[in-house]
Specification:
Blueprint (H helix, E strand, L loop, with lengths): L3 H15 L3 E7 L22 E5 L2 E5 L6 E5 L4 E6 L10 E8 L5 E8 L7 E5 L17 H9 L6 H6 L9 H11 L12 H22 L33 E5 L2 E5 L1 H4 L8 H7 L1
Antiparallel strand pairs: 1-6, 2-3, 3-4, 4-8, 5-7, 6-7, 9-10
Helix pairs in contact: 1-5, 2-5, 4-5
The structure holds zinc ion.
């Protein structure tokens, strides 16, 4: 899933490409991907795009204070193509196409589409003052609020769970959660409440460092976000079986809450191989 670094860098590229463009059309192409009825997408036609930004994993298209905003969420397998010139074809998994005339008078379109079978990518047109799905989001990882939570919070859930919970902190998914725990040398099963002061500081630094590092790498991409696989910038996520970049021992994986966590037993769990909870439940 695209996380904060992928979405931030994508928002920056789209802003550079489209700021000052006029929206010519917003076409729903996928069943039920448009999550709002009012305002209608047509109400944005003819409006000037002032800015493309990001909040959590959402792209935010701003057309001015008095105009509706448009949000796009790519979910797990949603991707975005920049079409210059715009196409009329409807590729498999198409979600929506947004057509613009840019500041130079050239036609350009954004095609949102989804790989695989899940249909979770979505978009919203929000009336002024309506935060829609943004309302429920926790703070950004670079905020003081998040620092306070990590350094002094007594949340008893596992750190991995907390990092992925968008209501607690927004923008992190399982990829950067794996990388942050590895960097902080914490067990995937560690709970926040159990961490001492130095571990909490290490965790906060690690979360911010992996995101900053990821963003620097993502800024080297060009165009949209079209590639089906986006994992090339992770330090350890999904790299089980390969040598740990720190100690050289093989990385392992463990199934946890319906997905797999990559970790290094030597660096993160005192050499202990974690039991696969899902498997042990089945065996029992
Ligand atoms: Zn290691």
């Amino acid at each position: 899933m695209p996380e904060l670094p992928q979405m931030q860098a994508l928002a920056e590229r789209l802003d550079a490409e489209l700021r000052g463009a006029t929206l010519e059309g917003a076409e729903p192409l996928g069943f039920s991907a448009l999550k709002t009825v009012v305002p209608a997408p047509e109400s944005l036609v003819g409006k000037l795009l002032l800015r493309v930004g990001r909040r959590a994993k959402y792209l935010v298209f701003s057309f001015g204070d008095d105009a509706p905003r448009m949000l796009v969420h790519l979910s797990q397998a949603g991707r975005l193509d920049v079409e210059r010139p715009p196409k009329k074809t409807r590729a498999k998994g198409s979600v929506a196409r947004f057509r613009f005339r840019d500041a130079d008078g050239e036609d350009v379109a954004l095609l949102v589409r989804e790989y695989g079978h899940e249909r979770k990518a979505a978009w919203w047109v929000l009336a002024p003052g309506d935060d829609g799905p943004l309302e429920r989001l926790g703070p950004e990882p670079d905020s003081d609020e998040f620092a306070e939570l990590v350094l002094h919070g007594d949340d008893r859930r596992r750190v991995h769970t907390i990092l992925r919970d968008q209501r607690t902190v927004s923008g992190v998914g399982r990829g950067y959660a794996d990388d942050a725990l590895w960097r902080a040398q914490l067990s995937p099963y560690a709970s926040l409440a159990s961490l001492d002061e130095s571990q909490r500081t290490a965790l906060l630094d690690a979360v911010r460092a992996v995101l900053a590092n990821g963003l620097a790498l993502e800024r080297e991409r060009t165009g949209g976000l079209s590639q089906p696989k986006l994992g090339e910038h992770f330090e350890v996520h999904a790299r089980h079986g390969t040598p740990c970049p720190r100690c050289g021992e093989p990385m392992r994986r463990v199934s946890y809450e319906s997905h797999e966590v990559t970790y290094c037993p030597t660096c993160q769990t005192g050499g202990k191989v974690l039991a696969d909870r899902r498997m042990s439940r089945l065996v029992k």
